[in-house]
Design brief:
This protein is an alpha/beta fold. It contains three helices and six strands. The strands form two sheets. A four-stranded mixed beta sheet has the order 1-4-3-2. It is globular, with a radius of gyration of 21 Å.
Length: 159
């Protein structure tokens, strides 16, 4: 990801989020990255000074750089999936949705959620594990890819 993020821990998260709320930052969303089988990296994204609202009127703000100084603030936290994470919904109530979605999709738990679907906001009761999505790139050798392309074009000619 091409932005700078401030590292926080479960112990410092709420204080940092409260500081951002006091500075009138808007909570935008949270994103997740699977680090390993037991670790999840959470990114909390905040908008300063309603910069995101200005993008359609100020296209120069749409040029993102590796250091994101365009009014966005990001927090990064690595968490163990077995350890409950403090919910920020006491500060930004709208976080209830993304935190419940993260529980459903990644199997982590948030402590202090005012509306806690217990991992069942999207998932049915018979689902036995969190179905997070991961991507893998498979590269074929160049010769095999050319042979596959020839075979596909030949099939198209026969149809």
């Amino acid at each position: 990801m091409f932005f700078e993020a401030k590292d926080v821990t479960p112990d410092t998260l709420l204080a940092e989020v409260q500081r951002l709320a006091n500075a009138k930052c808007r909570f935008v969303t949270m994103s997740q990255t699977v680090v390993d089988e037991n670790t999840l990296r959470l990114f909390y994204h905040f908008d300063e000074n309603l910069t995101m609202s200005d993008l359609r009127h100020n296209p120069e703000l749409c040029v993102w750089a590796p250091t994101d100084a365009k009014g966005m603030v990001h927090l990064r936290m690595d968490v163990n999936k077995d350890t409950p994470i403090p919910s920020i919904s006491s500060i930004y109530f709208c976080a209830v949705l993304i935190e419940n979605e993260t529980q459903d999709q990644f199997g982590v738990r948030f402590a202090g959620l005012p509306l806690d679907y217990q991992g069942g906001m999207y998932l049915e009761g018979e689902v036995t594990h969190a179905p997070y999505f991961t991507m893998t790139t498979v590269r074929r050798p160049a010769a095999a890819a050319k042979d596959d392309a020839k075979a596909e074009s030949a099939k198209g000619d026969q149809a």
